[in-house]
Amino acid sequence: MHEHPLVQLTLARMREFYREPEAIFWVFGFPIVLAFALGLAFRNSGPGELKVGVAAGPGDSALAATLDASQQLGATVLDSAAARLRLRTGRIALLVVPGDPIVYRYDSTRTESRLARLEVDDALQRARGRSDPAAVRDERIVEAGSRYIDFLIPGLLGMNLLGSGIWGVGFSVVQARQKKLLKRFMATPMRRSHYLLGFILSRLLFLFVEVVALVGFGRVMFGVGIRGSVLVLAGITILGALSFAGLGLLVASRARTIEGVSGLMNLVMLPMWILSGTFFSYARFPDAMIPFVKALPLTALNDALRAVMIDGASFTGLGAPLAVVTGWGAVSFVVALKIFRWR
Amino acid sequence: MAGLDLTVAAGECFGLLGPNGAGKTTTIEILEGLTPPDGGEVEVLGGSWGDGAPDGGRALRERLGIQLQETQLADKLTVAETLQLFRSFYRRSHTVDEVLALVELEEKRGARVVTLSGGQKQRLSVACALVSRPELLFLDEPTTGLDPQSRRQLWEIIRRFKEAGGTVLLTTHYMEEAERLCDRVAIMDHGKVIALGTPDELIASLGADQIVEFALSDGSTPAGLDGLPGVKGVRPGPDRIALTVAQVHRAVPALLVLVERQGAELSLLATHHATLDDVFVALTGRQLRDA
Fold first, then answer.
1. What is the pLDDT of residue A8?
2. Nearest chain A alpha carbon to B57
């Protein structure tokens, strides 16, 4: 068993990988550092106090005091030059100009400014004696899975599977080709399929460590849970890893130099990092682009991972994205095998 | 490559000798089934490469040991791990310990490939070829770039393999290596075999087995050299004149008399046994080393 070429090829792949400290960092350390930094930067503390300005003029300080009394608002009296500058740089969300009528000056494309508009108006109208005919009561909750970090962790998982698949497979194949090691293997009775399968098997073994490290980190540090079944999540990550290993083989199938393959890898990965909804939802792209974005393997994988981790979906609801992931992997693998340069 | 017609017998060590670019590597890689020939027939151990082989030549590969000139083994693996990997490809192979003993790398068993010296790397490369218990061993420039001691170690490994009944086909551009190791040698130049035979036969083809080299201080070439007793050939070179000589004890005094009679002065006089290098020079007019 230990003597089997497939076992030996897989072992060799793994040894070469874990003896490379840089690779360890980029595969295991980097996603965790990224999750930690982004999780801290975008933690859900709510919008906080909205800064607004009151333009200097008759009755300005009374107006500022009224607004300041609201918990949601912080008001400062400003002369017109300072007010313009702060409004432009976003340090205040809105400027109130006293007079009759009172003027609200703000940028209506900014969410924060529109929120300030509502809060300021509400505070002013109440102070001037508005009465609310309907009785209301606020009930504040925090919905699990709605935070940015809940969105981010599955995306990072997908991105990591893509990165380690393409780098892990692509670099080693091209390095072996460049060092004429591939040619040396061709001079033995080694089966070509064993060589390629060795890459895929070693990817699957590392995959386990990758996923446990990132998901475990999200759970311990930010309380990011898995709503769906762990087995479904495992199935999807395995499928994703296989698919990206296939893509990695395709990228590396012809290149003779590391420089050449690096360019190809970036060409494949960069668009997906941006388009596939890793750091922000791809729904922000124009509608015409969405079908194209959804056809990318990373988009499909991210969608499936989020469906399981956030919405608790099972395999049944994930037919479309999983078909996209599988399709990319299968086609890449077959084409890679056809055009592979063995020497 | 043109008109190459070679037969290597079982149990012999056959050398392809020639300068860089003579087509040695192409020839050996065609024989190894790594480069498809443009035409012609190749038969290795009774089998052949190409479409005829139903298993992609795997059965044939089981019986070969191949060392390539440019292969760099994986840096991060240890010596033992590398050999373990290569032996897993063969049905019938040496154990790691056996093959380490063959190439005397036992003490480097656990060392990573990256830490090995040039000679040790080369011995590991040969070990990867020997691990399959080959009947036929292909070595492409096995000692190029090695120090003299490492070179002798490798020669010893190859000699032992041959003594155990193995057949060797090697390429080299060191005539000394070919003379010491090879039963027969094909001298190649510009993709052609220009001489074929045992090293002794090739040297004997010069007609004499001694070389006398001399130069005159004024750089001139005296007339009447080929009439001297025992001189079989005259080759003027850029900085010296080489005489192929059957009897040094008759030729040298006659040469000295000739030089004195012309009133010239010797700036160099040396004699040595003829080598394959002299054969190459006689055939091509160029030195093997800087050809």
1. 95
2. A189
Q: How many Cβ atoms from other residues are within 10 Å of residue B135's Cβ? A: 15
| Residues A308 and A159 reside in one and the same domain | yes
B103 touching A (Cβ < 8 Å) = no
Residues A37 and A57 in one domain: no
Nearest CA in chain B to A192: B56
Distance separating alpha carbons of residues A290 and A282, to the nearest angstrom: 7
Verify that A14 and A71 share a domain, yes or no. Answer: no
B contact test, residue of A188, A194, A258, A341 with most B CBs within 10 A? A188
Residues A104 and A29 in one domain: no
pLDDT digits (tens, 9 = 90+) for A3-36: 899 999 999 999 998 898 887 888 788 888 988 8
pLDDT in tens, A38-86: 888 877 655 568 889 999 888 888 888 888 888 888 888 988 888 889 9
Judge contact between B2 and A154, C-beta under 8 A.
Answer: no
Same domain, A78 and A19: no
pLDDT per residue over A282-315, tens digit each? 999 999 999 999 999 999 999 999 999 988 888 8
Q: Do B68 and A180 touch (CB under 8 A)?
A: yes
Q: What is the pTM of this model?
A: 0.79
Measured between beta carbons, the chain A residues lying within 8 angstroms of B76 are: 15-16, 19-20
A214 and A316 share one domain: yes
Helix (H, G, I), strand (E, B) or coil at A23: helix
Helix ranges (H only) for B22-88 are: 24-31, 58-61, 79-87
Q: What pLDDT score was predicted for residue B197? A: 92
Residues A84 and A220 in one domain: no
Domain boundary among A127, A153, A185: A127
Range of the domain at A13: 5-42+145-339
ipTM associated with this complex: 0.86
pLDDT digits (tens, 9 = 90+) for B165-175: 999 999 998 88
Shared domain check, A223 and A266: yes
Pairwise CB contact (< 8 Å): B81 & A9: no
The residue in chain B having the minimum alpha-carbon distance to the alpha carbon of residue A16 is B76
Domains of chain B: 13-199 (3.40.50.300), 207-273 (3.30.70)
Indicate whether B291 pLDDT > 50: no
B119/B156 Cα distance (integer angstroms): 13
Taking a C-beta distance cutoff of 8 angstroms, is the pair B129, B158 a contact? Answer: no
